[in-house]
Each structure stands twice: as C-alpha cells, then as structure tokens.
Amino acid sequence: MKALGELVAEGWLIGLERVGYRVVENLPIEHSTIADSKNIQAVAIEYKFVRQGTALPEKSASEYAYNFSGGLPDISQFPFHEYKRAMSDVLTRPDLSQYTYGDSAGSPELVHQLKEYLRQTRSILNRDVVVTNGSQEALYIIAQLFLQAGDQVAVEALGYPPAIAAFKSAGADLVGIRLDKNGMCPLTLEAQIRFGNIKLIYLTPLHQYPTTVTLPIKHRQAIYQLATKYKIPIVEDDYDHEFHYRCQPLAPLAADDPAQLVIYLSSFSKIMFPGARIGVMAVNKRLATAIAEYRLMISHKSNVLMQASLAKWMSSGGFERHLRRTTRQNLQKRDHAVELLRELNCFEFVVPDGGMALWLKLKRKSGNITSAKALAEKALLHNICIQHQQQFIVNPMDSSDEHIRIGFAGMSIEKFATGIHKLIALLKR
Questions:
Q1: Which residue did the predictor score with more confidence, 168 or 366?
Q2: DSSP secondary structure string, 135-204?
Q3: pLDDT at residue 242 above 70?
Q4: What pTM was computed for the model?
Q5: Does domain 80-318 have CATH number 3.90.380.10?
Q6: Cα 250 from Cα 203, distance rounded (Å)
C-alpha cells in the first residue's frame, strides 16, 4: 500500500473509490526524466551587478575579545528584565491594528513619545517624526530622495563611513570639508559651495564623528547661514546627544531652523543596543510624507513589537531611569579611560565633553609602530579591534594615518584597562 501511495503522489497512478488504482493517461515521463538527469552538468550563472554594497568583514567587530570600535553601548548593562515587562504587556494587550501594513512613519504611540522626548531634551518643536530601521535606513532614504549622479555632498573631511556609503549609493560625489579644532570649517565650505554642485550638507555637530569635537555656536551659525543663502538642506546626525558630561549639550541646529533646512537624525542604538534598529527623523510635514511613501518600497515599516514596547517603556519612566544610569556609568568610564591613557603616555588627545569614544594621536616616540593603520592591523591578529584614521578619510589622496578611535563605553572599566594594556604592549613590541 505504501508503494501504491508513492506512485499516486508521483502522478503515475490514480486512486478510484471502490474500484482500486489505474495508470494515468498522461504519464509524468518528462518530469521524471528531468528529475533523474544526474549526468547533466549545469553551469552556474555569473551575476552581473550594477551596484555593490560595502564589503563584509571576515570577522565582525563584536567577535573580537576587545572591541574598541565605534562607540558601542555596554549591552550587558541594559535592563532586559524591565524591558521584557513592557514587551509582555504589549503582547498581553495587543493593538491588532498595528500588526498589519500601514503607519510606515511609525506606530502612533511611539511617535507621540518621541515628539515629547525631542521637545523636552532638545527643544525640537513642530516637526513630524518618522521612525526608521536605524539611522542608516534614514540616511539611505535621504540619499535616494535628494541625490542623483553628479550631485555633490559636503561632508566632514573625516566622516562616518556608513553615511558616506549611503550618499555614494545614489551616485553622488563627496566633497570633504576641512576640519579645524572645532569641526567643519565654514570658510572651506563656502568656497566649495560657490564653485561646486553641492546639493546636501552632512554634519555631526555635537560630537564630530570620528574626532569627537563639538562644533561651536559661531561655526553652526555660519554653516546655517550658508545653507540658507544657497538653499542647501543640512542633514544633522545627532547620534549620541544623550551622552554629554561637562554641561548641557548645545541644542541641535534643528531646534532653531526658520528656513526648515535641517533634516534631523537620531538613534536609539547608543542608548539601548544596535539590534533594536530604532532610528528617528524629525522633519517638516512634506518631507515626512515623502519619506513614509519611499519606505513603502523598501522596509514598509519598523518592527511593530519593538516600537510598541519602547513606547510603553518610555511612558512608564523606565527609559529615563536607564538613560540617567547609563550617562553616569559612561562618565565614570570616560574618566577612568582618560586617567589610564595619561598614565601610559603613548597618545596625545583632548578630553571630549561627551560621547562614547576618544580620538587618540600616536606619539612619535611611543613605540615601534608609527602608523595607526599598522597598529590596528596588528591588533586584529591579537583579538583587539580598533579603528584607524584611514577608515574615515573622504579624500583618497589624504594619507594622514596617525590617529585611532577608541570606544570606552562598550565594556567594563576593568576589561577596558586590560585591553588597553594589551594594545600598548603591541605598540612597544
């Protein structure tokens, strides 16, 4: 009976009630022949790509024993049990209307919480909020909406690689604007605007990525006046606004934007964890509509459960408590890192007012390695991940290679010290 059943399933026999089985009129010879043709040698197609993304590393930064890259949060300190309660409450009383398509700008509850949060902490008012799958999706959408082949984007001469990749994906050319001790130089920007084809300005003004310096009010005003004069939108990437220690952080450009030129970006990757994939855009209504419409072609909407849980967590006060606790911890970690690095005396650096990383310059006589890139490559072989200056350079002709970027917030004080001692040992070996 089992054999007969298999023949029926393969299409050779047909079962007739109270009669039995008979052979089908049209035998599946053709299909069987194809299925059994083991001797046919297929030639794999060679795909011809017209676009290419950023090359994947052989080993991700998180796989290294000491990961100093970027400015990652210490995920081990995230209150998962507390957040679980918010998520459990959402699942117990689900808003079923949110678990379908729609609301590509973000869940109404989270959008409401974010508007209030931006109003209280950054003085950003009268803007629509769009929730994205991290700030990277926001950057990609901006690039696709504003740029085409031949356009130019003014970026800081040392910049954030994923943003650079997003602008390039739209066919834009990048113009690296000189950095001084305060950040982007307005005079250099003006010269490039006058003689170039700049359609967008990208800034990280609070903690310049990667150098960590804060753009002063005078520079901000000069850049904003240029953007207003030439009608060029500014993308303000405020990726770690929460972590400013010496004083209250300067208000974002978006907080005083009468010309509505500023496209404001923020992220929860530094506050929570990168896997949360919660990016925030605060823009005018027309742009918010265009962004929401474009999202329908790519991701449609962000994770509903994560959005609803975050909204619940924010409304309960859990988010604010976590933020205060994390800010205190990051300040302690920064101070310990500064004290340790001063004792070791192998780098020159300026203590940043905020952020989650340090920008260190190799001292000429601190060891046998004088190239930041060489140190970073050697460190990888010893299970240590750091970033070097060449990774952030926009102008390929710039050969500067004397700085490394060290994140201090992503691990315990003790582990940071151990990793730094191992790094210094490589430097002096």
A1: 168
A2: HHHHHHHHHHHH--TT-EEEEESB--HHHHHHHHHTTPEEEEEPEETTEE-HHHHHHHHHHS-EEEEEE-
A3: yes
A4: 0.89
A5: no
A6: 14
